[in-house]
Every structure is written in structure tokens, then in C-alpha cells.
Amino acid sequence: MPYLLISTQIRMEVGPTMVGDEHSDPNLMSFLGATKRNMLGNHFWEYYVNDAPRIVLNKLESCGYRVVSMTGVGQTLVWCLHKE
């Protein structure tokens, strides 16, 4: 998958960071140390890590991902990354 969305809510300095959904590459999620969870009330699964977004972005850069865009939505920050 060449595109990846990661996000964090409220405190970007400490994490956690959401790094994927139930369809994400399991090898990449393992590399990031991500855990799969289903939050109460959600009808989907997500992967998250306790690392701050900066740590996750550094790891993803080492795998060839580059930030395409970043935005804030309410108290959530979202990064879109692409791998060549």
C-alpha cells in the first residue's frame, strides 16, 4: 500500500498515535510495534502505538514513506504519507 494515514488526538507530544486500520500491512504494523484494538462503540479496528507522532514519522521515513500533507481536524492531527 503506497498511502498511509496516521493521526493523534489532543496531545501530539506524547501519543498515542493511530497508525493504521484493519486492512493495513501487518508487516509494517509489526515494524512500528502497533497493537490492534477496537474501541467501544466503533465498528472497525485500528492499529495504534504509544509513541508520539514524531517517533512514528521517523520510523516511517526509514521505510521510504514521505509526508504528503498534514492537517488538523478539531483536536485531531492527521498526516498523509506516500511510499514511492
Automatic annotation (TrEMBL):
Cellular location(s): Cytoplasm, Cytosol; Nucleus membrane
Protein name: GTP cyclohydrolase 1 feedback regulatory protein
Family: Belongs to the GFRP family.
Single GO biological process annotation from the record: negative regulation of biosynthetic process
Predominant cellular place of this UniProt entry's protein: cytoplasm
Entry GO MF terms: GTP cyclohydrolase binding
Key words, A-Z: Cytoplasm, Membrane, Nucleus
GO CC field: cytosol; nuclear membrane
InterPro entries: GFRP_sf, GTP_CycHdrlase_I_reg
